[in-house]
């Protein structure tokens, strides 16, 4: 463990780690997410309303979390009023006579949860023509007969904004062919496809989506999910065509690979497609699967870097230092990035070097370094692979990583989780700033991961739970997912509505397979996918049939 005296100057330059933050210290820092985090922590101190007001005006791009935290310290009545209105639920919204407050609280979703009379009252109170138009759609008791009188943009606004029960009640019908072609061109169509494909109670609208032909202007994601919708409804040839269009339009290589993967699954001539997919330069779930099918493994990755034995005094645990480094990297021409990486030749700067090398190679070289083996000496090899797989995705091994939701450090530990775990982690943590210390961060992350491993055993589900929460993961598993069936488990992996967790899981699973090989315990990705369909081997939540 680092010495306490060393820790006292580890973070934030002149800011003492355990002293109260001051307004002068906040002002001394450049506007950034790191300074926002300082301000957020400042609100936890014993400060006056005037000090809170002054600090809040220093926030750059204040979000709801920051505003609500600030409101707890401010005595300004307009701030308390705004928070009260923003938090107003459907029942309170129905009862209020305050038009200003109602404007802050109202949404299409909340309107969809009301009875017609209440909805009319709220819409009249707010006086917003757009909401009035949305209410007309929600009030229509025979929308399947009248939908043509509403513009496609309005139709999709209400469709996407409505809560689940209202959406299923109002919209589970089949619009005519011409109207469906018009919907494709309206804002929100891709969102509508994604929310429809996974909902059996919207099956009629899902069938209507199979009639969509005018897809030339559709984005790659919309094309992909239209393809999945076709595949679910047995139209393989049309699905393959849409997957191909999606891949042709995709910007990211991983999206191109995903489109080809699904063409291979749906095609009768898939051997050629697997071979083509295995030639991709990107290391992702789809290419690893194809490579295993063709008996190969990626070669464009590294797990070690040749560095000198020098130790740099550059502090990668300081988020302000990391912000400056990111600015430097961003301003450096691509042809000079390798030279920049050499400037940071020190054994304690491997995460920084790896970060720059990946960017310099345009990610044709991908780093799977292991710079924190000392902190992971007490875990078994499989857990080590899981920790590094998560760490690579969370922070790219940078100790000072800080998200806009204030996930902290190497393992992007959330503040609420750190506080909940304080009683079981004996490291003397005094502030959330301590979480930028790699040793302390991993002291918190390891028991949390162990807790998840007790409940879910598969690396994909561990990733889901780490990113989306164990409750979210349990609900998803119990929603008739990952059961034996055509195109499973891949459909269940693609149909998760929460985009961040869905993509995160596939990336962490990829990292896990690569790290298992590096650590001398290679695993089969194909076998891992097959295991997903056997609940006894993956989690404690599902009952065998």
Give an account of the 3D structure.
The chain is an all-alpha fold and 545 residues long. It is built from 33 helices and two strands. It has a two-stranded parallel sheet with strand order 1-2.
Topology diagram in text:
Elements: H1 4-7, H2 23-27, H3 33-42, H4 49-56, H5 64-71, H6 77-86, H7 90-95, H8 99-105, H9 108-112, H10 116-126, H11 129-139, H12 143-146, H13 152-161, H14 164-171, H15 177-184, H16 189-197, H17 203-209, H18 220-232, H19 236-249, H20 253-266, H21 270-278, H22 285-293, E1 301-302, H23 319-331, H24 337-343, H25 350-360, E2 366-367, H26 381-395, H27 415-421, H28 438-455, H29 459-468, H30 470-477, H31 490-494, H32 499-518, H33 525-531
Parallel strand pairs: 1-2
Strand order, sheet with most strands: 1-2
- What is the CA-based Rg, rounded? 26 Å
Total helices: the number is 33
Biggest β-sheet strands, sense, barrel: 2 strands, parallel
Which band does the percent of strand residues land in?
under 5%
Estimate the mean pLDDT confidence: 94
Q: Number of DSSP strands?
A: 2
- Indicate the percent of residues in helices: 55-70%
Low-confidence stretches: 1-18
Distance between the termini: 49 Å
Could you say which overall geometry the principal axes of the C-alpha atoms support? globular
Helix/sheet category? mainly alpha
In brief, what are we looking at here?
This protein has helices spanning 4-7, 23-27, 33-42, 49-56, 64-71, 77-86, 90-95, 99-105, 108-112, 116-126, 129-139, 143-146, 152-161, 164-171, 177-184, 189-197, 203-209, 220-232, 236-249, 253-266, 270-278, 285-293, 319-331, 337-343, 350-360, 381-395, 415-421, 438-455, 459-468, 470-477, 490-494, 499-518, 525-531; strands at 301-302, 366-367.
